[in-house]
Design brief:
Blueprint lengths: L15 H19 L6 E14 L2 E15 L6 E13 L10 E17 L3 E18 L2 E20 L5 E13 L4 E12 L1
Antiparallel strand pairs: 1-2, 1-8, 2-3, 3-4, 4-5, 5-6, 6-7, 7-8
Length: 195
């Protein structure tokens, strides 16, 4: 089976202490910024084509995402973005692959920064940490359940109209790198609704 491999972080360097330190820094930073400015809040709903490569399992399918974003800077360019992503992956359309079926759910906390911010367009970069729950099924029975954690990174473009409460966000690069050689990457489309 042909696979696309990208660099992953070494498992031995990704300790629980590192993960919790990263999450703590994100939360403290967001709280300190949030107290200084009136924030903007959004609900995020999205889907995207995603590929997962984890240990001996490999699959691709649509994944679904729900999230929340809150501006935490005076100029509304820095955002706190917690989200939940779920996917039901199979190898049905992959040549020379053993039949597999597995579920992933990923809880992420990230910071997003708008590098370019105009009235109708934004270009942003997002980085954060995640924990994931992973279940592998065979003949409708769960044969493997595992948790891992790691870091995520994405690039996106947001298109909006100033007089509308919603915007469309396209994320052509969305990568999660985790322990045990966990890799998830794909492209997402997201609808943001301003509260």
């Amino acid at each position: 089976m042909n696979r696309l491999y990208i660099l992953t972080l070494p498992t031995n360097s990704m300790t629980k202490k590192t993960l919790f330190t990263s999450l703590l820094i994100v939360l403290i930073t967001s709280l300190s910024f949030a107290q200084k400015s009136k924030s903007i809040e959004k609900i995020k709903l999205g889907t995207g084509y995603t590929i997962v490569d984890y240990s001996y399992l490999y699959g691709r399918e649509l994944a679904y995402n729900i999230g929340y974003s809150k501006s935490i800077s005076n100029n509304h360019r820095l955002w706190l973005v917690p989200s939940l992503t779920v996917g039901d992956f199979t190898t049905e359309n992959i040549d020379d692959a053993e039949d597999q079926h597995f579920l992933t759910s990923i809880l992420s906390v990230a910071l997003q920064y708008d590098i370019i911010s105009r009235n109708k367009f934004k270009f942003n970069v997002t980085a954060g940490s995640f924990i994931s729950n992973f279940k592998n099924f065979k003949n409708n029975y769960s044969i493997l359940k595992n948790y891992n954690y790691g870091y995520n990174f994405s690039l996106g473009m947001e298109f909006k109209r100033k007089d509308k409460p919603y915007s469309i966000e396209l994320r052509p690069i969305n990568v999660n790198l985790g322990t045990d050689s966990f890799v998830q990457f794909g492209a997402n489309a997201i609808v943001n609704y301003r509260l």
